[in-house]
Structure formats: C-alpha cells, structure tokens
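for the recovery benchmark. tokens below, seq after
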C-alpha cells in the first residue's frame, strides 16, 4: 500500500486467476475508479495478474485496466509486462499490498490457494478470497496467521456471490441473537430444480446448467452438495465463530430427485429445494445440507433459478431473509470490491 502525506492510501492489487470473477472485478474497477476515489477515498492499481494458462503480468506502477478488460474479451496469452513467475513467486516478489485469490476451489486440501494465503501473510500482504477452499478448510488457522501479521483474511465472495451476507449479518443484524439459519447456497442446483419444475428431466436440466457455464469444474461439487456444504462451514466460522469439519455436516445432493418427486410436491403445494441448515440455539449444533420439500409460504421456496437466499432466525426480528444473486462475474466481483472497501476502511480483525 502506498501512503504519502496529503494523499489517500493506494492499494496495490495482485490477482491470482483471471477467470469470470477477476474479469467482472476489472470491469467494475474500470467503470467506478472515479466514484471509488471520490466517495470512498479508495485508490488502487492492479500491479500483477497470475494465471496457469496465460502466464503472469507485472508492473510495479500498475497494469492498464483497459488492457485487462481487452484481455477479458480476447483469450490470448499475456504479451505485455510478462514475468517468469508462478502465483507464489508473484505473491512473494511483487509490490502488491493485497492478493485477491480467485483460482479454482479445491475442497480436498484447499491447495494451491492455501499456500497462496500463507505466502501472502508471511510477506505482510492481505488476502481477499473468492476461492472457498481456504475458508472452508482452514478458516481459523488463516485468520490467526493473518492477525499475527496485521493482515486481513476476507471472504465475502465465497458465499451468496455478491449478495453481502457477512456484512449484513455483522452490521445490519447486530444486537440480535441469531440461533441459526437455513439457506439456498448453491445456484446450480437451484437452477436445475427450477428447470425441473418447468418440465425438464434431471438430465436435461444438468445439460442446460453445463451449457450455461454454471457447473463447477467437478460437477459433483454442485449436484452432490459439496459446494453448499463448504459454504455452510464458512458461514459457521464467519458468522457463528464455530469450527465445523466438512465431514460433520450431513450432506445429500439432488441427484435422486425425479419428475415424480417434483410432481408429488406440486400436488401438495410444495417445492423441492437443496437446503443448508445450521442450528446453534439448542444443546447441540445441527449442520446439514439436504433436499427438502418446502411449503410455498416459506421464503426459500420462492427463490428460483441461480438465486441464493438465507433466512436467519433472530430473537428480536424473528426470521429475516436475505436473497440475491448466487453466481456471476460482476456479481461476485462486487463481493470482492466490498472486501476491498472493508480493507480500505481498516474495518477488519
Ligand atoms: N457452483 C457455484 C454455485 C458457484 O452454483 O452456487 C458459486 O459459488
């Protein structure tokens, strides 16, 4: 971060990964640079970008955002400001003050993202992650490591995409005691269930989700509930300060749901949803991701397509539901921006 007398702090950003979310973020930053400076005293440069397939670019004074946006439209290898670095070299060697980790999620051991986070903290750099691996598997370890170095470990983009769940919980619901939550955390399966309600078979809905680019690289992550399971573990850590091992979260996907089930639910005025539940109010914590047949009066039953939602059970307000986009480049890019603004305000611990 550059800070000089009379000028705002300037955040120097390194991007790990240049897929849909990184490109969505670049688009937002290009369009909103002036507004972010004027209204939030947020100044930045993207100094480095590292990808596995297109190489690494670095310029200590900042890469051109217009050029990065050009690269979003044109899938060519990087040719300007190229450096012979992998992501770890980039994190270690560049002058970035914040690393935005947007490589593919790996829920087996969170690598290589975990090493990227560790390298960043060891070299005094903040981490903003849209990658679910580190937060799902090593949230408290990463928080502690970050804190020791005075760094941030921020993960708003990992759950409900751009819908600002963490800040909603921490800022807007403050003063409430929250005894639990139920949510639709996976956009792909929600899209598939909505398609099946419109008459598609399970296989056609899956094909369509694939065609629209909704599926994770490993489609089982979506349809078998692993993605929602990881998101629930992140919510438990971030919102309730609870460390829950993924294997302690009961998990069932949607692959057993057929048109027969959909029709049966329709006759009962109900709707199938893949529901993630976390209950912390009783003697025992309950954490599960399972398909449920919901009454149409349930706010979660009204959340269709790739949208996500969470209903929080609060002592002062009763149930409060937040709903919004669950995927998308600009949408998830927005969550990264909101973490950048949190960082800029110094509002992290
Ligand atoms: N595959 C994920 C989903 C992407 O469908 O929700 C967003 O995390």
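predicted aa per position
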């Amino acid at each position: 971060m550059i800070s000089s007398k009379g000028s705002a702090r300037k955040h120097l950003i390194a991007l790990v990964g240049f897929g849909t979310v990184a490109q969505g973020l670049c688009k937002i930053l290009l369009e909103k640079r002036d507004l972010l400076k004027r209204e939030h005293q947020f100044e930045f440069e993207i100094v480095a970008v590292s990808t596995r397939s297109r190489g690494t670019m670095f310029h200590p004074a900042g890469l051109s955002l217009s050029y990065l946006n050009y690269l979003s439209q044109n899938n060519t290898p990087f040719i300007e400001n190229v450096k012979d670095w992998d992501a770890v070299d980039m994190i270690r060697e560049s002058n970035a003050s914040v690393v935005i980790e947007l490589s593919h999620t790996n829920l087996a051991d969170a690598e290589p993202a975990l090493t990227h986070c560790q390298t960043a903290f060891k070299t005094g750099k903040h981490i903003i992650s849209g990658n679910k691996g580190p937060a799902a598997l090593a949230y408290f370890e990463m928080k502690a490591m970050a804190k020791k170095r005075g760094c941030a470990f921020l993960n708003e983009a990992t759950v409900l995409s751009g819908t600002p769940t963490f800040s909603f919980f921490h800022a807007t619901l403050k003063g409430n005691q929250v005894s639990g939550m139920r949510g639709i955390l996976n956009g792909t399966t929600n899209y598939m269930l909505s398609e099946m309600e419109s008459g598609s078979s399970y296989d056609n809905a899956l094909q369509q989700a694939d065609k629209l680019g909704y599926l994770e690289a490993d489609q089982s992550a979506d349809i078998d509930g692993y993605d929602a399971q990881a998101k629930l573990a992140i919510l438990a850590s971030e919102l309730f300060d609870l460390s829950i091992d993924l294997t302690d979260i009961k998990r069932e996907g949607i692959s057993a749901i057929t048109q027969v089930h959909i029709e049966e639910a329709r006759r009962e005025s109900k709707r199938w949803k893949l529901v993630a539940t976390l209950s912390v109010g009783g003697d025992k914590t309950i954490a599960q991701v399972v398909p449920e047949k919901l009454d149409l009066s349930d706010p979660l039953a009204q959340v269709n397509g790739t949208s996500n939602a969470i209903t929080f059970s609060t002592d002062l307000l009763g149930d409060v539901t937040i709903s919004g986009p669950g995927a998308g480049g600009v949408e998830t890019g927005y969550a990264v921006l909101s973490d950048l603004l949190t960082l800029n305000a110094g509002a992290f611990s």
